[in-house]
Design a protein that fits this description.
The chain is α/β, with parallel strands linked by helices. The chain has two domains: 14-110, NAD(P)-binding Rossmann-like Domain (Rossmann fold); 148-203. It is 45% helix and 16% strand. A hairpin with a 2-residue loop joins strand 6 and strand 7. The mean pLDDT is 94.
Length: 205
């Protein structure tokens, strides 16, 4: 199954995880790293979830009303029928749902994630082999230059200046490519003098 990669904003988004074990913990930690407001419902939670103050924990079995307000749902229990029930409810309500280890019950899946500052890459095999996805992610990570996160921070900081100075969008594509290549050569963002020289050269193109 080929899946389209879609990156979404999770800052402040209500995410429900049904389950309280270590799988639920990994999902909660990953989502919280992107700003999601994660709440979990389960009769029992693993100690790591109990100790992590970022999550709202409800200690009881899942109820249909738990889906109210959720914009993303993960079913991560060891009860197959409960996971399927959660999936069916979510699909009926148009809520994206992931069921751990059951690709056929999912409307989205978690990729093998690679993050370097502002850069996020997700690799998936459509549920065929998470191990292969992780392998491909690791090979991609090996190709990334040292200091990439700092370069991206710097490139993001100068982007508004460059867009204002060069309003022609068709020209900016090549300019940004040349600027990124220069950052790669230096292994860092440009200092003020280097940026001024770069912009002057671009003005003369």
């Amino acid at each position: 199954m080929a899946l389209f990669p879609l990156f979404i904003e999770l800052e402040g988004v209500d995410v429900l995880i049904v389950g309280g074990g270590h799988v639920a913990l990994r999902k909660a930690q990953g989502l919280a790293g992107y700003g999601a407001l994660v709440r979990l419902v389960a009769p029992v939670f693993c100690p790591e979830l109990e100790a992590d103050g970022r999550f709202a924990l409800t200690r009881r079995g899942f109820e249909d009303a738990d889906l109210e307000g959720a914009r993303l749902v993960i079913a991560a229990t060891d009860e197959r029928e409960l996971n399927r029930r959660v999936s069916g409810l979510c699909r009926a309500r148009g809520i994206p749902v992931n069921v751990v280890d059951e690709p056929g019950e999912c409307s989205f899946i978690f990729p093998a994630l690679l993050r370097r500052g502002a850069l996020t890459a997700g690799v998936t095999t459509g549920g065929a082999s998470p191990t292969a996805a992780a392998w491909a992610r690791d090979r991609l990570a090996e190709q990334l230059p040292e200091g990439l996160d700092g370069m991206l921070d710097w490139l993001g900081s100068v982007r508004p200046l460059i867009k204002e100075r060069f309003p022609d969008i068709s020209r900016r594509g090549g300019l940004f490519a040349r600027l990124f290549e220069l950052c790669r050569e230096l292994g860092r963002g440009l200092d003020e003098a280097e940026l001024a020289a770069f912009l002057e050269a671009e003005d003369e193109r």
